[in-house]
Design brief:
With 406 residues, the chain is mainly alpha-helical. The protein is 48% helix and 5% strand.
């Protein structure tokens, strides 16, 4: 059963589900207009219990919008990236290895969290990876921004997101007022998602936990607080302890399948089997069929916990990536049937080599992080054009082989 729409809206701590909307950018980045908006919003804040001193602290130095916030709002990879591209950048050798290392490092904390909340540790590790690369993103000043400025920018300059941003801004001001974090450390993504596990302010208010017992719910600096907060969100949205998110399956050829939920036993009765040949557990549990890459790609029967994951981010790609990454961190293995890529896949290390070779030739000036974003794709296309190859921007073995000959 899916979480109710109201709960899902409250719990969408990652921003893709909320921001699948058109973007209106004010043609004038006028600071005087923004300053007037900040002055007028003071009354709204006061009506919501925000003191004058809190408001002044929060907006000290915030005298202009952040144009990068408006630019970043245009791109939501959960809805725009090809299936293989989305998963290749999130479920790979490095994210799995780091997850296993974190499982060992924080074993005692994860033991306590599992006991209290009943949420699988590998799911929490996968969320941590997806949201902040196990906290590495919090060290990146180019990504982390002033939450108050980001939300004020959206409230002022983006008509579609203004209502949401105003609500989140009030919640952020309340976080400052309670003293869980000070204004200099209230940082987040372009849309105000905060901390190791990227909670928007209203979701922080609803689910944040002081798990390390220091009197503050600090998801920015306390990994126990951050992971427990994620577990609390999942538990309160109906996570079923001891059960999976779903199964990769094989579909019998030459037949259509019903939409909606059937029990796992009934799916098996019409010829759907687990891809790894093992039996389904809990045959009475209901599941839906998901085939994000068409009939020739991997298919999945997803259970209630899959839809609980969508309370974190209401995108099938996101929930599936969390589930697949969690399974690999736990040692259950990867996909039996891979995604339909129009090229030969590279390993994570080979993608780093690709970036390094493109850099050496002057096509790329980014990090050698194995993640193929727009910068890498632009560099690949430039090299392909020079080499007389099809300019598709794919990180393929064909491109790497040609680079190795240079």
């Amino acid at each position: 059963m899916r979480p109710t729409p109201g709960i899902r809206r409250l719990a969408s701590v990652a921003t893709a589900a909320i921001f699948g909307l058109g973007l209106f950018v004010s043609p004038v980045l006028a600071e005087p207009g923004f300053e007037r908006w900040v002055a007028s919003f003071r009354q709204t804040a006061a009506e919501n219990g925000i003191s004058r001193s809190t408001y002044d602290r929060a907006f000290k130095g915030v005298d202009s919008i952040d144009p990068e916030v408006l630019e970043k709002a245009r791109f939501q990879p959960e809805f725009t990236a090809p299936v293989w591209d989305y998963f290749d950048n999130r479920v790979h050798e490095d994210s799995v290895a780091n997850g296993r290392a974190m499982a060992k490092k924080y074993k005692a904390t994860l033991d306590r969290i599992e006991k209290r909340f009943g949420v699988d540790r590998y799911i929490l590790l996968a969320i941590w990876s997806m949201e902040s690369n196990y906290g590495e993103i919090l060290k990146n000043d180019k990504v982390m921004r002033n939450v108050v400025r980001s939300l004020a920018t959206l409230a002022y300059a983006d008509q579609r997101r203004a209502k949401f941003a105003r609500t989140q801004l009030i919640a952020a001001l309340k976080i400052l007022q309670t003293g869980d974090i000070d204004e200099s450390h209230l940082t987040g993504s372009w849309a105000g998602a905060m901390g190791h596990t990227q909670f928007i302010p209203t979701s922080y208010q609803a689910y944040a936990v002081d798990f390390d017992g220091n009197g503050k719910r600090d998801i920015w600096n306390s990994i126990p607080d951050a992971l427990a907060t994620a577990a609390n969100l999942l538990r309160k949205n109906g996570w079923q302890a001891g059960k999976t998110w779903g199964y990769e399956v094989d579909l019998p050829s030459g037949r259509k399948f019903p939409s909606g939920s059937l029990t796992l036993s009934k799916w098996q009765g019409i010829g759907v089997t687990r891809a790894n040949g093992k039996p389904f557990r809990h045959g009475g549990d209901k599941a839906e069929l998901k085939a994000l890459d068409g009939r020739n790609g991997p298919a999945f029967l997803v259970t209630k916990n899959f839809f609980v994951l969508k309370a974190y981010n209401n995108a099938d790609k996101y929930a599936l990536a969390v589930g697949l990454l969690a399974d690999e961190i736990a040692g259950y293995g990867g996909l039996v049937r891979d995604w339909n890529r129009p090229f030969t896949k590279l390993s994570f290390v080979e993608k780093q080599e690709l970036q390094e070779r493109l850099s050496t030739l002057g096509y790329y000036d980014g990090k050698f992080d194995g993640k193929i974003g727009e910068g890498s794709k632009t560099a690949i296309r430039a090299f392909q054009a020079q080499a007389g190859l099809t300019q598709d921007g794919h990180p393929s073995m064909e491109v790497l082989s040609r680079l190795r000959k240079r």
